Amino acid sequence: MTDLDDLYDLIARAQAAPWGPGCSALWAQAARLAEDLGRDEDALECYSNLVTAYTMGGEATRVIAPFTWCDNMYRTRPDLFTDALKHSFRLAVQVRHYGAASGAYRSCAEMQRCSPANAGTLPEFG
What we know:
This protein is mainly alpha-helical. It has helices at residues 3-16, 21-36, 40-56, 64-76, 83-107, 109-112. α2 (21-36) runs antiparallel to α3 (40-56) and α3 (40-56) runs antiparallel to α4 (64-76).
């Protein structure tokens, strides 16, 4: 099996896994491998699905890192986002991911000491 075969095997296993730590671990492993292979489109898919897996699996405090990765990729490589993915990402930002990220921030004891006024502003998505 090649590294690319391993990546697609991880993605297939993650897609088939029920929500929870096992599913999240598969998406995280796939995302790291996609990055290591320089496959930005696959990494984007994996990190986006990792955010969903953490959210649906009850691991809200873990959403922040993969969401930030996707947000940074949106800012630096918008060409990777198809129209459907752009639409999905905008909705995710507005409806789910920022809600999940904000819930994660509230869940972290260290973040409870921070004022929301110091948290910055939401990014603009064309």
